User: What shape does this take?
Amino acid sequence: MCGIVGSVSTKTNIIPILLNGLKTLEYRGYDSAGISYLKDGNLTINKVKGRVQDLENNIEKNSFSNIGIAHTRWATHGKVSETNAHPHNVGHITIVHNGIIENFNKLKHKLEEKGYQFKTQADTEIAAGLLDYYYKKYENIDKAIQKFMKKVDGSYAICMLIDNDPNTIYVIKKDSPLIIGQSQDVNYIASDVPAILKYTKNYYILEDYEYGKVTNNNIEIYNKEGNLLKKELKEYHGSDLTSDKGLYEHYMLKEIMEQNTTIRKTINPYINNIKDLLKMPDLTKYERIDIIACGTAMHAGLIAKYLFEQYTNTKCEVFLASEYRYQNNFLNNKVLSIFISQSGETADTLAALKKVKEENCDSLGIVNVKESSIARAIDKVLYTEAGTEIAVASTKAYTAQVALLSVLVLAHAYRTKSIKEEKILNILEEFRSITSILNPILEDTKTYENIAKEIYEKNDVFYIGRGLDYALAMEGSLKLKEISYIHSEAYAAGELKHGTISLITKDTPVFSSATNKHINTKTISNLKEVISRGAKCYLITDEDIKDDNIKVIKIKKVSMFLKPLLTIIPYQLIAYYTAKLKGCDIDKPRNLAKSVTVE
Ligand code: F6R
Assistant: This one.
């Protein structure tokens, strides 16, 4: 993976189109980039380890082509290098590829026996070799592609040029997203809609085991048997990527600061009066809710679990999608599976969804990117309205997920009468006031900057909490480690003493939040335990706690349904200012991609 762009035109130079498309997808994270185009029967391939800008600088000025493909790579097979970057060329075939060819070793040996020699460590080169082998063998591209789909295990979105076929781009798709954009005299291919939005909003979606032929004025899509399909031309209605950083130094800071707006926008349809809650899906027929997601989205699921169980007496399990897809999930028609995803493209989450669909069980999506693969595949989708999230570390998408899930639980509580109407009205009032509640926390940047100064040179940081505060500790810890590269771990506050406390030494930072009056004293006791071993403690709380050994960040007292939204902001900003002090590439942390489309 990561980003694919292709274009074929009548007269237009497609090189700037490809570069612009790659730049649009840059925020998703990548380590190398490449482009390939045909001109007068000559194939040019240009690859760099580094940024799309480096690639652009590498391309000869005034280069012109009507047909080409391009890629940003996030290394899976083979180290980060110019050689391993895409496109890969073998014989007549040049491809860019998202996904993983799982049986590439076996295929490699077979192709080597036929005389092929490979220059890179990339599985994509083997895919190019296999396509070349079948293309030569059958002298028929349809047959070659159909055979390729039969032989290859794994996932692929492939965009292909054939050197002796200068007017067509071929595409092949399984388990990794690919679309074909259509406009007058120029057609486009992309892994993600935003890459082509500057040029067209009309596109076709390729489904698994479909392949296509794209010329400047024609698009044909076939199924794996080679039958021409009649596909629906879609129109994109989501927001485009015109958002810029504005006055902010980083997208992450901008995205943290706009959370009052994005939360409000997400929950607005459901909070104006109590009856609005009935616009939420009715969950009363389910005996169990399963929540499936990865990373930060999974952490949002943990908040929902707590609220479902505590306030509606509904059993709720949370699963990492990468585990869920390979385990026994005890599904039946009394279980609702909720899938949470910002991108709507995460490979594990999508695979887990397919598993639920195979069992004919109900599914509900909490998704940010409109018309993404998960949004399309799921029974019902509720969109978060976080807008485009550019920074790799998720912030505003997380709070939008948490807010939407909290309102979903509240609606369930209303239907099941598990919370009194009067209390629900109060919570709705608080949700309507979210902007004024969050603003003071967002504005208190000096506090977070000062804390960052105290921790940015540390090697280890710990986060602890109980209940909701444990779920928040997990998210706080993830934010710090992913962008500042400081090792951090989150623990249930009561668990630390069962081993991990041995890592606490003088001045080890320990962060905690205590927002549940029934168990706060327990968490404070756990802080005392680490303080007596030298730790330096920071506590986010809505209680009046005065302790010389604990630096307290005070938040407003609100209902449990809103507390996570308030508590996470200091954690996000402390992570941000710490990474800034360390001089890290905050919006594009090393090794990470925004949308993880491989398993
Ligand atoms: C961390 C982060 C990731 C994502 C995870 C799932 O800041 O962004 O942990 O939450 O990769 O991604 P989505 O939500 O797109 O499925």
Remarks:
- The longest helix spans residues 396-416.
- The pocket of fructose -6-phosphate is lined by residues 294-297, 341-343, 346, 349, 393-394, 478, 482, 595-596 (CB under 6 Å).
- The domain at 243-432 is CATH 3.40.50.10490 (Rossmann fold).
- The chain has a mean pLDDT of 94.
